[in-house]
Amino acid sequence: MDDLYREYLLDHYKNPKNFGEIKNPDIHKHDNNPLCGDDIEIFAKIDGKKGKEEKISEIKFKGHGCVICMASASILMDEIEGKKLKDIQKMQTEDMLKLLGIELTPARIKCMMLPLKALQKGMIDYEAGK
Amino acid sequence: MRIDFPILNKKDGLIYLDNAATTQKPQIVIDTIKDYYENHNSNSGRSVYKLSENATRMLTDARKIFARFINTESQNVLFTKNATESINLIANSLERTFLFDKEDNVVVTEIEHHSNFLPWQQLCKRTTAQFRVAKYNIKKQDVEEISKYVDENTKIVAFTAMSNVTGLLIDVKEQILKIRKKNRNVIILIDVTQYVAHNELNVNDWGADFVVFSAHKIYGTTGVGIIYAKTKFIEQMEPFLYGGGMISSVSIGRSEWAESPEKFEAGTIDNAGIIASAEAIKYVQKNFREYMVIEEKLKEYALKRLKTIKGLEIIGHNKKNYGPVISFKINGIHPHDLATICDRHNVCIRSGHHCAQPFMKRLNVPATSRASISFYNTTSDIDGLIDAITDAKKILRVK
Predict the structure, then answer these.
(1) C-alpha to C-alpha distance for B242 and B99, rounded to whole angstroms
(2) Which value does ipTM take for this structure?
(3) Which residue of B has its CA nearest to A111?
């Protein structure tokens, strides 16, 4: 009936990829969407020369939320493994919409953006040496 | 009834079940706003010309209508922009009038809307007074005895008469009696924002010091809040907002305040909204008891139908003391997804934490779905909700 709840998004929701934890992660960020209760925790390992060449070598997430938020996390994790931090930091709403292949109303864009925002905050913490 | 609400009579067949967030407006309210701006607009209480005097008279009449509705006098009714501002006004004015220190305490409950939680939490933070929160008992599905938290050092007790999350009704009269037994000087505020559209209200009978609500939850416009305050507080309390219309004299060194209500109504208030909202009050008053019966029947019907859905759990409603607000959760479906799919069926329900995070934490849920009923809803609205939920389960492959 609508493209929001397409099969592949539901598959990601029901069987998310990269779901779990990483021990001793370089990035560890917990974030939530207080309005709807979406909640996510991201763990990542970093590889490569310090600075511009640093890449995500391994990434996992835990949490609970709506289809959009959980599918967005699963798809994002799948996409960015091996990507450079500086490229991930540049990602925006349009990139996520393209990745998910859907259109969203403003309220639901927040659900979709939570995983990316959490990761970007985690990367800032990492770069600040926190 | 339903025919009086233009938004419900359009061809799109809107099923509006988010009445706890705001109610729809009857034609008379919409017409009154138009009429006010076409024929009566001027600043009330400021000028001597006929137009302004007429606007002032209309405002005075509106105040009288609100006063009668809650069984008090006009001089005990103040207008604000919403219940949130009403509570902030009272909290700040009390803080400016009476001394609070670390020996004192303020009591609220865990089921409060943030608007009746944060102003008190912050007052305590500023004054070092102790902030006490009466717990919600999960097993009993009720708030613990509020008076248990009250002692001789309690300055204020603030609680809701009806939960905006589950519809739980609190026996206000009984609670006030018990609280006063422990400390007869305690200042008591009752938030009737959810209660007022579904129950008759007699502030004298309760004996509370303050009662607050928003007009938009009872078919009035947004931008209008109401305070009932006992005369001694109207007289004693310092104002909250300073500015135009609330003074008797201003000089560089000092200023004197006007009498109430002006003292508490600084700046130009929402005349059109207040006058139109008074028409809403007149509108519901005509058949209020009948509406209460309709809402009770619709609530029972909704509960009966919701209970037939596998994996759906209703929060509360274990006893009769509930208003027509129903929160529920469904295994495997996030409230946001349910609300989105309901919207595809043109069914408006709320999903989220309902501005009551302490309550949600106690219930151990991040969010719920909430359907809230008004007398203008019908059993076929409820059937529409059930169909939408069934469809959501199908789309999201939940058995």
Answers:
(1) 21
(2) 0.84
(3) B336
